[in-house]
Amino acid sequence: MATKEDLNRLSGVIIDAAIEVHREMGPGLLERVYEASLAKELLSRGISSIQQLPQPVIYKGEALEDEGYRIDLLVENSVIVELKTVAQLLPIHECQLLTYLRLSGKHLGLLINFHVPLLKDGIKRLVHQFPFE
């Protein structure tokens, strides 16, 4: 299990990489373009990620057939990154990321909206049952 310091460092690298992608690409593109660009930028920094990772839904201990979600990016098997290209982030977007964290057993997620003039205004860091405190 990653330590709190590892997760904080990793989230900082992810945010720096996302800022670089936004600086290079600007707002206004499709979510999948930012996803592919961010995965490439992370890889150039020596950070692994998996795109569109299937996340099954479990109901009372049983996986629901043909039901599930896809995590935009799972970085270093530790941080879930959910990307958006919307006019503004809404509470439902935070709920979506928190649900992914709960279903996957991960503790740290980043919600990143690329459809903003300054990317720092489109980033939210969410924690679910953080085990270190």
TrEMBL record:
InterPro entries: GxxExxY (IPR026350). This is GxxExxY protein. It comes from Luteolibacter soli.
